[in-house]
Specification:
The structure is a homodimer. The first copy, chain A, is an all-alpha fold. Chain A has a single domain, classed as Triphosphoribosyl-dephospho-CoA protein (Orthogonal Bundle). Chain A is 65% helix and 0% strand. In chain A, helix 10 packs across helix 11. The termini of chain A are close together. Chains A and B meet through helix 1 and helix 2 of A and helix 1 and helix 2 of B.
């Protein structure tokens, strides 16, 4: 019987092993300086923080610990966004893994949780959008230098997430009761075949559902929209089952163009955790 | 900073991710009913037992716990032999990861450790050779039914390993101070490129070095010898670097023929642990 922390850890491993996941590192693809083994080491390093969350620690410190451990490998950022989703979900699983419970947990986050979240950015190089002018003092890239401004405004971690929507679909999960993560877990349960194949199908449908916000941040809205339109065409014909070569070709093309829908991979990892922990799927 | 248990866990993940590893599940190959994701889940499940060893628990019970957790996935036996090597190595790392320390630890194993080892066979289906007639009461496949005979003869776990040599090169490591595992760790340090590529090179040279005992048990000495001769030809020309396609073709052929040099993969996992824990390699 796996613990919630072990299921979260396994979800991170299954996410990176699932293929094809267009634009992302997967079982069959590496990026230039970010390779499969970096994700394996990142998942192992994240574990202590995930265990803290499962043991009832506050979400911010547990997340910071998970990120600090994840960052102890040479590929830099591998699973920051996935851990930002998994930490409250694992914390919820300590009582009950449901949307109402995780919603109330994120509502209860404090300024101290927000401060820990800012400190987490000092461990890794995360791609984020420039904040609006009035939020410049709270640019996450300032790390702990932003904490005084955070405390002055009395912003909790969920407040920070609200500020990040739109433009960050990981933050959006925090303010929508993790709706896409829970819905994707149901899709994993309904799909056929080995779990990594199901995860590839769910990844494609998530990518078809909304433009990836990491792609929008790094490459612009038009590229993000193009990628989603292409994914939608493939998802509409259930291409993972009916024309896998087309999805493989799309995956190779995105890797070549350096287009990385990382937010969609983060939500896929969250869905894998929910599905494993709720025993919607087995392995 | 990874703990010894985390390095052992990462070693299991890196071993299965390393490719090509002829005849074994690797990043690019699955067997019929034994897939990549089963090894990921097996490695996650083994962790508590590895932590017990790192915390100074007796080797037998820690091993049994690791196997029980490993077996909680649908692929049955994934890493039994690797855990039989990793458990004493992780236990040694709690003080000092060196050949003299691990040798003295295995010398100190007890009848209770042997009993736990026998109980471990009840969690998974492990391929082993028929024992000699006088050892039939101690056939490991009898599981805990063999424990009274074990206690009557006063056999410790290292005694049981001595009885298993020749015919089991995992047991051979136990009675030779883990010489191939430590030597292979040095080879990992001396090789070039990403760690999974180094592990593939070391796997091939281990396979070239001695016929795989799991292949000999399941398919006969002649097949084991043929596989080693083929591996020796490829290793002699450093084929992983100079003619990778030839190694990939050999890997595909062994998978098709159902020839699985699992003992060689076990020793590769042990070498990865030693190299990570001793900081001979980084990731």
């Amino acid at each position: 019987m796996r613990t919630p922390a072990q299921n979260a850890h396994l979800a991170l491993l299954l996410e990176v092993a699932s293929t094809p996941k267009p634009g992302n590192v997967d079982r069959h693809r590496d990026l230039a300086d970010l390779r499969f083994e970096h994700f394996l080491a990142g998942a192992v390093g994240a574990q202590r923080g995930l265990e803290m969350a499962a043991d009832g620690a506050a979400i911010g410190p547990a997340f910071e610990r998970a990120v600090a451990g994840m960052a102890e490998q040479e590929g830099d950022n591998t699973q920051f966004g996935a851990l930002l989703l998994l930490t409250p979900l694992v914390r919820a699983a300590a009582t009950d893994l449901s949307q109402p419970v995780v919603e109330s947990l994120v509502e209860e986050t404090t300024v101290a949780d927000a401060a820990a979240f800012y400190r987490a950015f000092e461990h890794v190089d995360v791609h984020v959008a420039d904040p609006p002018a009035d939020m410049a003092p709270l640019d996450v890239r300032r790390g702990s230098d932003a904490i005084p401004a955070l405390e002055k405004r009395g912003l909790t971690l969920v407040d920070v997430m609200e500020q990040s929507v739109p433009g960050d679909d990981v933050a959006r999960e925090w303010v929508t009761g993790f709706e896409r993560s829970f819905a994707a877990a149901e899709q994993l349960a309904d799909a056929d075949g080995p779990l990594p194949d199901r995860a590839a199908t769910v990844f494609l449908s998530l990518l078809a559902d909304r433009p990836d916000t990491l792609v929008a941040t790094r490459r612009g809205e038009d590229v993000a929209r193009e990628v989603t339109d292409r994914a939608a065409e493939l998802a509409a014909q259930d291409a993972i089952s009916t024309d896998r070569d087309a999805v493989e070709a799309f995956a190779d093309e995105l890797v070549e163009r350096g287009i990385n829908p990382g937010t969609t991979a983060d939500i896929t990892a969250a869905a894998l955790f929910i599905a494993l922990e709720s025993e919607l799927v087995s392995i």
